[in-house]
Amino acid sequence: MSLNNKVAIITGAARGIGYAIARRFVEDGAKVVLSDVDDERGEAAAEELNGLGEAIYVHCDVGERLDVRNLIAATLDAYGDIDILVNNAGIVAAGDFLEIGVKDFDRVLRVNLKGSFLCGQAVAKHMVEKVAGGGAPGAIVNMSSVNAVFGLPNQVPYSVSKGGVNQLTKVMAVSLAPHGIRVNAIGPGSIMTDMLASVNDDPAARNRILSRTPMGRIGDPREIASIAAFLADDDASYITGQTVYADGGRLPLNYTVDVPEED
Ligand code: NAD
Predict the structure, then answer these.
(1) Which domain covers residue 20, as residue numbers?
(2) 180 CA distance to ligand 1 centroid (A)?
(3) Cα 103–chain centre separation
(4) Any ligand 1 atom below 6 A from CB of 18
């Protein structure tokens, strides 16, 4: 169990990819703090994982500085340390560029980008102090997306936020490298969670996704969790500042667009 006794905080862990990461980390022997804004689901998830190993739930809206401070304090209170942070919490707001409102723009940037900054900085401060005292450096994993790279016309703030997460990952990595702390990101393609649930009832949407996914299937959250486990572990000891894409071949595919028929 490679994450044995490591203490990990995972944001947005009540369901989806965050929950899959929490489960994998517990299975790998880590003590896991699941945090979310969905307290009912978060508590239930932590209780379920407690049957497999050690896990607690702490409420944290990642965009709220005081919530983040409380998350750090509660983790140190429960487990006395923080070795790993997974900045996973994320939301979407669909809308075309000419229509999307500033409220939606702010809402998405606040959770996806500012939240990763707030949690990342707070945990990094603890890690730097720990290293100065002779402790082992930790690792931070940010959740990006293939949308950080390409532009989808109806995913304006989301794409911008994930582009920012990639840049945040690089800046954090070079800032924290002198302390031995590694920071990497994961860029999933289409993964079957609530964020993608609408495609279940919409064959056209499902076809659109599959038509640009060379592996011909939607990914499973566990396929993202295994990357998080690798990046958080000492096996990845010389990797920092990278985004690892898990997208069934979507990014390497050269896109096509519909061409209108000539009269
Ligand atoms: P999800 O909607 O299933 O889960 C997101 C979780 O984040 C929920 O539990 C939600 O309550 C929580 N959350 C929302 N706002 C929060 C806040 N302010 N503070 C703390 N928690 C908050 O989504 P998912 O598909 O599991 O996505 C997880 C991450 O993976 C996100 O960052 C998302 O952008 C990224 N991602 C997902 C996909 C995909 O296809 N599912 C693809 C690429 C990237």
Answers:
(1) 7-193+219-246
(2) 28
(3) 23
(4) yes
Nearest CA to ligand 1 atom 17: 61
The CATH number of the domain holding residue 29 is 3.40.50.720
* Strand partners of residue 32: 8, 55
Question: How far away, in angstroms, is 142 Cα from ligand 1 center?
Answer: 12
Domain-embedded: residue 233: yes
Residue 166 forms part of a structural domain: yes
Task: Give backbone dihedrals phi and psi of 121, rounded to 5 degrees, phi first.
Answer: -65, -45
Two tokens, residue 117: 């900054």
> What is the C-alpha to C-alpha distance for residues 106 and 183, in angstroms, rounded to an integer?
25
Q: Is 17 in the pocket of ligand 1 (CB under 6 A)?
A: yes
201 is a domain residue: no
pLDDT in tens, the chain (263 residues): 589 999 999 999 999 999 999 999 999 999 999 999 999 999 999 999 998 999 999 999 999 999 999 999 999 999 999 999 999 999 999 999 999 999 999 999 999 999 999 999 999 999 999 999 999 999 999 999 999 998 889 999 999 999 999 999 999 999 999 999 999 999 999 999 998 887 778 888 888 889 889 999 999 999 999 999 999 999 999 999 999 999 999 999 986 667 778 77
β-strand partners of 140: 85, 183
Confirm whether pTM is higher than 0.70: yes
* Tally of domains in the chain: 1
